């Protein structure tokens, strides 16, 4: 089994009646999603994507990745939010958070355009000195400010280094099929383009070219990634709550939320899961946090954060629950050896693997946290393969959509993201924002 939800640590927190009561609502949410009658139904292309993705484009992605691997030392991926988190999370999960530092035959990969920090951008420019560079600019709208700034800077660098024509052979754009500034620019300059489908929103787009090109450049097998997602699509399409772990997860987190557990802490005992936590936070935070509602998604990596956030989780406000993602296998194993002098007193662990010790850390923690009043859901994932990741991604995407419908929100829009943008544009003096500029400045300088 690729993924299994274990609910034994919910005992005493959720009762059978609550679970029974939510079952018809889950069935309704399932129908709304599968029949395309729910809120935001123009953005459910990701549901069948693992089966009906564009196979011709998939081959082009593989060909582009092969070219990039052959002519590039540093691959720069420009994008923000859903246009960057999934790819970065997948590379760190499948390969490593230390991917760039490890010996390998594939290019270093850096992500930029996800902040407005000149220090970060300048540092990246320095890292590119004397290196062969290619760029993947990713923006569905094609107009997002942060990546647009980084793209202008890197395009300039490539044109200076390779000339306009040479640069064009090293710039890959992932954007809307037909519209937007980026698409226009790419067509004009002759950059190769890949598509973010109309009916797939940014945070649901990691299994489109948005995620697939950078992931393929890292040497990961994107075919196996899609196979894992296709398996999840098959297995998680059953409307029966009892037989569908994805729906059980969505239902249980909503039951807990309705009982005042307003914060969900996603926990993993593997550092390579850190960016997957960030991807998950965006997926759920942007999908559910609206209309004055929504679980607040937080994350921790254990045992690291048991020495920081562990205190709060054990004894702070009782408004949270944990969802722990555990892996049945490790990428590499280390066993502790016996030491003749035993100065560190660790001989009681001699012969034990670190995986075993990590497992005991989980068992000790789950008992302590549930004793402290924190319900725990546990997701067991088979391993760190591309298949498992594809499965996990689809599992969370579908759980998020069902969960959003249970909450009564549109899980596919993000109207709140516009507020800061409008203010920032006004304060920067973008044409058309003159009135707002005056009003905002008066408030800032009162
Ligand atoms: O999930 C979303 O839709 C957002 O996080 C977007 O991905 C993010 O704002 C970037 O948008 P774009 O790809 O249009 O540049």
Automatic annotation (TrEMBL):
Pathway: Carbohydrate degradation; glycolysis; D-glyceraldehyde 3-phosphate and glycerone phosphate from D-glucose: step 2/4; Carbohydrate biosynthesis; gluconeogenesis
EC class name: isomerase
Gene3D superfamilies xref list: Glucose-6-phosphate isomerase like protein, domain 1
Catalytic activity of the protein: alpha-D-glucose 6-phosphate = beta-D-fructose 6-phosphate
Keyword Metal-binding tagged: no
Purpose: Catalyzes the reversible isomerization of glucose-6-phosphate to fructose-6-phosphate.
UniProt similarity note: Belongs to the GPI family.
UniProt name for this protein: Glucose-6-phosphate isomerase
Organism field: Hydrogeniiclostridium mannosilyticum
Highest classification ranks of the organism: Bacteria, Bacillati, Bacillota, Clostridia, Eubacteriales
Gene from which this protein is expressed: pgi
């Amino acid at each position: 089994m690729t993924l299994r939800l274990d609910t034994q640590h919910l005992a005493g927190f959720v009762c059978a009646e609550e679970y029974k009561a939510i079952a018809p609502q889950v069935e309704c949410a399932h129908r709304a999603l599968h029949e395309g009658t729910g809120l935001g139904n123009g953005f459910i292309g990701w549901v069948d994507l693992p089966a009906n993705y564009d196979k011709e484009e998939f081959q082009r992605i593989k060909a582009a990745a092969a070219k990039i691997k052959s002519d590039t030392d540093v691959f720069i991926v420009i994008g923000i939010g859903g246009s960057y988190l999934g790819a970065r999370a997948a590379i760190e999960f499948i390969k490593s958070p230390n991917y760039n530092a490890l010996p390998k035959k594939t290019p270093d990969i850096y992500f930029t355009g996800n902040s407005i920090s000149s220090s970060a951008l300048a540092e990246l420019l320095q890292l590119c000195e004397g290196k062969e560079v290619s760029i993947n600019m990713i923006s569905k709208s094609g107009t997002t400010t942060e990546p647009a700034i980084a793209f202008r800077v890197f395009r300039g660098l490539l044109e200076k280094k390779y000339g306009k024509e040479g640069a064009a052979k090293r710039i890959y754009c992932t954007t809307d099929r037909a519209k937007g500034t980026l698409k226009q620019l790419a067509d004009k300059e002759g950059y190769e383009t890949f598509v973010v489908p109309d009916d797939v929103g940014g945070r649901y787009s990691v299994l489109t070219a948005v995620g697939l090109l950078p992931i393929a450049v890292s040497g990961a097998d994107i075919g196996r990634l899609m196979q894992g997602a296709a398996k999840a699509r098959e297995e998680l399409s059953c409307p029966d709550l009892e037989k569908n772990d994805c729906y059980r997860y969505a239902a249980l987190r909503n039951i807990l939320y309705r009982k005042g557990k307003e914060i969900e802490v996603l926990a993993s005992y593997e550092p390579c899961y850190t960016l997957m936590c960030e991807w998950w936070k965006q997926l759920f935070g942007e999908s559910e946090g609206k209309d004055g509602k929504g679980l607040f998604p937080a994350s921790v990596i254990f045992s690291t954060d048991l020495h920081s956030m562990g205190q709060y989780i054990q004894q702070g406000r009782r408004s949270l629950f944990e969802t722990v993602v555990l892996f049945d296998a490790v990428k590499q194993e280390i066993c502790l050896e016996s030491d003749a002098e035993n100065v560190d007193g660790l001989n009681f662990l001699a012969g034990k693997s670190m995986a075993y010790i990590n497992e005991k850390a989980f068992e000790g923690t789950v008992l302590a946290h549930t004793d402290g009043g924190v319900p725990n859901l546990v997701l067991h994932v088979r391993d760190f393969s591309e298949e498992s990741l594809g499965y996990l991604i689809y599992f969370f995407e579908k759980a998020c959509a069902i969960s959003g419908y249970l909450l009564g929100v549109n899980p596919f829009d993000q109207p709140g993201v516009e507020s800061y943008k409008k203010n920032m544009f006004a304060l920067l003096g973008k044409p058309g924002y003159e009135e707002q500029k005056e009003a905002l400045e008066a408030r800032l300088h009162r």
